[in-house]
Amino acid sequence: MTSSAATLAPSALKTDQMFINLGPQHPSTHGVLRLGLTLDGEIIVKAEPDVGYLHRGTEKLSEVRGYHHCVVMTDRWDYVSAMPNNLVFCLAVEKLLKIEIPARAQYLRVLMCEMNRIASHLLFLGTYGIDIGAFTPFLHAFREREMVLDLFEMVSGARMTYNYIRIGGVMMDLPQGWTDKCAEFLKYFKGKLKEYDDLLTFNPIFMDRTKTVGLISKEQAVNWALSGPNLRGSGVAYDARKMFPYCVYDKMDFQICVGETGSCWDRYFVRIREMAESVKISEQCLREMPAGDVMAKGVAKIPKPMPGEAYAHVEGSRGDLGIYLVSDGGASPFRMHVRAPSFINLAILQEALVGLKVSDMIAVLGSTDIVLGEVDR
Question: Model-level pTM?
C-alpha cells in the first residue's frame, strides 16, 4: 500500500483541504500575528497574514500631540530598534523647521543607530536559532545584547524605549567613561561574530533547514517593495545609508551586504555580516566624533513649523523606514504617515509560503524578522 502510494503522481495524492490558524498567540510569530493557512496535506496552498492585533493608532494620536511628544510614541513602533525610529521622525521635523544639527549630535545619532542595529540583529540571531531548533546561540546572542543595552542605559536611562534622539540633536552628551566602555565592547564583539558562525551559521543541520528554503528572487523582492536585509538577501544592493546618505553616513566606510539566492539562510547571513559593518561604523564614529554641542540652538519648546510637508527616511534595522509629515502651522502634525518596513516585508508571505511544506513555514516567517509593534503601529 505504501509503495503503491509512493509511485502515484503528486496530483493524484490530493486530500481534502484544511484551514488552520497560526497565531495570533504562537511562539514563532514573535508577536500577535495571525496567519490563515489553507493546507492540502502538508502543502500550503494559501496563506493570509492577518494583522491589527497591536494597533494603537499612533499616526492619528500624533495629530493631537506636540512634536516633542511624538518622539516618545516612535519608541513603541519597532521597540527592539527604537533609535532609528526616533531619528527618522526628528529628521522629518527638522526639515520642516529648517534646523541645522551640530556635528557631534550627527555622529552620536549614527553611533546609536548602529549599536541598536547590532542589538536588534542579535535578537534575531537568538530567536531564529530557536525557531529552527538550536537553543545555545540564543544564550550567546543575548549575552552580548545585554552589554549593548547596558550602554544604552548609561546614556539614556532606558534599555528599550530610549527617547534619546530629540528634535535638534540628542537628549544629552555621553556620560564619563562611556566611550571607553563602548570601544571595549566593540573589540570584544568582533571575536564573537566568528563564534556565531561556528555555532549556527555553518551548522549543517541549520543550513539544511534554511539554505534552499523560502527562495525570493530579485524580481519578487523588488515587486513586493521589500527593503532591508530581506531585500539585500535576494541580491539587491539597496541601502538608504549609501543611496540617500543622512547624518554623517557619507563619511563612513562600510559595505552593503547582499545574499545570492534569496533563501532563508541568505537573509540570516546578511544580518550577521551587517553586524560586522555596524562595528566598523561605530568605531569610526568613536574615532572621528568632534567635540561640541549636542543640541541645536533655538529649538522651541512647542515647535510650530511653517505650513508644508516633509519626507525623511533612514535605513532601520528592518529596512527602509520613512516618515511623511504635513504641517498646517500648528503645534501638532496635521498628518503623519509611517512607511513601516516590517508591514511591507510581511506582505510577501502570501506568495512566498505557497507551495512550501507547513514545516518550512516557521523558517520563512522567522527569516523575515518582523516586529508587530511596527506592523500595526
Answer: 0.89
